[in-house]
Structures are given as structure tokens and as C-alpha cells.
């Protein structure tokens, strides 16, 4: 990861995480609004539903509960604490943001889960744990930040125990073929998203599928949940137009203000079919 990108991502989440938590709570990811995207749900419940739906979709954990979990891109510990409590597991979260790691530790102490969790500032392209350390690697909307996506998936494979599971959920763009490449307008739309949200690039779900297989994973499950999560961005836009949010934006600084002003990039991307929400589950 280039030092410049590393710094941009760190600064973005250092500045914006407190605002997000104040407005939305601990879960820094999409919500799930039913298979057809038509359920009218409380925004925080939709985010919890996403976690549960992803777990249910990815396989049966009733007789094979994970004991050691790695949460890559853990934010302020939303998924980490949820998984630790749900499975009674030991969960380690990594993030590029010291602000997020410290807040996750505070939240773990408040929830009585400090003994079950650990949060570290670390680079997902060089995960600081030995081979075969985890039963489950959970990556919920962090893959889009990875400048070397093959190296990231190789690291996930390396730290998994044999038979361990990867659950990988990430932003994608639409599938492409030689006959249907991205248009100039689509490239421009994506470049604007990259600039605002500190992303190097995104790829299509079929490209991810090939990468995951090339890294040695097996038993792949792949799905596109774009329709189910697309309403999220309109809900975010509505929540940003409040006195509390506007005051928080000015406190957070220009980069966060720019991101808030550009939320329509994502909602429009889903409507056009350019932006996609991809899921992959696989085992080592």
C-alpha cells in the first residue's frame, strides 16, 4: 500500500468515524432491506440484518462455530463485538485508523467483551499474525480499499486455519466483457467515487471470483446483493440533512463534508447498475 493512500484512508476514518457513530451507531456498512430491497426498516436494524443475512447465506455455523475470528477493516468494532457475542469467539480486529482502534477498545470494555477482543492498527496487505491463526476471516466492505487485491486475498488465505472460512463482502462495479467494457462516463463516475472515499479502484464480482480461486480457496459461494442494499444510500442522504449531522460535518473537516456532499454518487451508481455489492464465501 502506498504511503499516500495509507495516510488518506487513515485520515478519512480518523476524521469521520465519530460523526458516523453519533448519527448511525457502531456499524459502518450497508443495511439489508430484503431480497428485493423493499423492506422499510430502522436503519440500524437493517445493518444488523445484513450481518445476520450474510452469516446465514455463507453457511451453517450451528455445528461448526468459529473460535478465532479476524475482522479485516473492523471500524469501531461493530461486527467484531457482534460476532464475539454471537459465537462466544475470540475476535481480533484490524484497521488503518488509530481513532477507530481506540474507540473499538473502549466499546469492547463497555460491553464487557475486552477479554474476548483485540483491536490493532495494521495493514491488511501484511496481516501481523502467523499462518493458520483463524477459523474465520470476516471482511465486510474493506476490500474496496485494497490497492493489491490479490495480495489481500493471499493474506486472508495464509492466516486461515485449514478448513477455515473466508466471508468477503465488497463494493464492485458491474461485470464487463470485451463487448461491454466500462464506458467513459462509467469510468468518470467510478473515479469520482474513488476520490471521495479514498479507494484505489474496484473490480467486478467475476474478477474477484477468479482471484479467490487462484489464491487456493475452495467451495466458493458467490452472490450479488445490490438490490437488497441499494436503499441504504438514500437513507444515509436523509440522515445527513439534520442539524446534528451538519454540525458534526463541520467539526469533522472538509474531506468528510465532501464525502457527505457526494453520497448521491453511490445511490446513482446503484440505480444505473454500475455499482454492485458482491459477496463471496469460501474455505481453505
Automatic annotation (TrEMBL):
Domain of life: Bacteria
Molecular function (Gene Ontology), one example: S-adenosylmethionine-dependent methyltransferase activity
InterPro entries: Erg6_SMT_methyltransf, Methyltransf_11, PiNMT-like, SAM-dependent_MTases_sf
Domain Methyltransferase type: 70-168
A family per Pfam: Methyltransf_11
Record GO biological process: methylation
SUPFAM superfamilies recorded: S-adenosyl-L-methionine-dependent methyltransferases
Positions of region (SAM motif I): 69-78
Region feature SAM motif II, mapped onto this chain: 132-140
Family assignment from sequence similarity: Belongs to the class I-like SAM-binding methyltransferase superfamily. gTMT family.
Protein name: Methylase involved in ubiquinone/menaquinone biosynthesis
Amino acid at each position: 500500500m502506498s504511503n499516500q493512500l495509507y495516510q488518506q484512508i487513515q485520515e478519512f476514518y480518523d476524521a469521520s468515524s465519530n460523526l458516523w457513530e453519533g448519527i448511525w451507531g457502531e456499524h459502518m456498512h450497508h443495511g439489508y432491506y430484503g431480497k428485493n430491497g423493499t423492506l422499510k426498516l430502522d436503519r440500524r436494524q437493517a445493518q444488523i440484518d445484513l450481518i445476520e443475512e450474510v452469516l446465514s447465506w455463507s453457511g451453517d455455523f450451528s455445528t461448526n462455530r468459529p473460535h478465532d475470528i479476524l475482522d479485516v477493516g473492523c471500524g469501531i468494532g461493530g461486527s467484531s463485538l457482534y460476532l464475539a457475542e454471537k459465537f462466544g469467539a475470540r475476535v481480533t480486529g484490524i484497521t488503518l485508523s488509530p481513532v477507530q482502534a481506540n474507540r473499538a477498545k473502549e466499546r469492547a470494555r463497555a460491553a464487557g467483551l475486552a477479554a474476548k477482543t483485540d483491536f490493532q492498527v495494521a495493514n491488511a496487505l501484511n496481516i501481523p499474525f502467523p499462518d493458520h491463526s483463524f477459523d474465520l476471516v470476516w471482511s465486510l466492505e474493506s476490500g474496496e480499499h485494497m490497492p493489491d487485491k490479490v495480495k489481500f486475498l493471499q493474506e486472508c488465505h495464509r492466516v486461515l486455519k485449514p478448513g477455515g472460512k473466508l466471508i468477503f463482502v465488497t463494493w464492485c462495479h458491474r461485470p464487463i466483457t470485451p463487448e461491454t467494457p466500462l464506458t467513459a462516463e462509467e469510468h468518470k463516475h467510478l473515479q469520482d467515487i474513488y476520490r471521495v472515499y479514498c479507494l484505489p479502484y474496484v473490480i467486478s464480482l467475476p474478477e474477484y471470483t477468479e482471484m479467490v480461486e487462484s489464491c487456493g480457496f475452495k467451495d466458493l459461494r458467490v452472490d450479488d446483493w445490490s438490490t437488497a442494499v441499494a436503499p441504504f444510500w438514500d437513507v444515509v442522504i436523509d440522515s445527513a440533512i439534520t442539524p446534528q449531522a451538519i454540525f458534526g460535518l463541520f467539526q469533522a473537516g472538509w474531506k468528510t463534508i465532501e464525502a457527505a456532499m457526494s453520497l448521491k454518487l453511490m445511490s446513482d451508481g446503484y440505480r444505473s447498475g454500475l455499482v454492485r455489492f458482491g459477496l463471496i464465501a469460501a474455505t481453505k
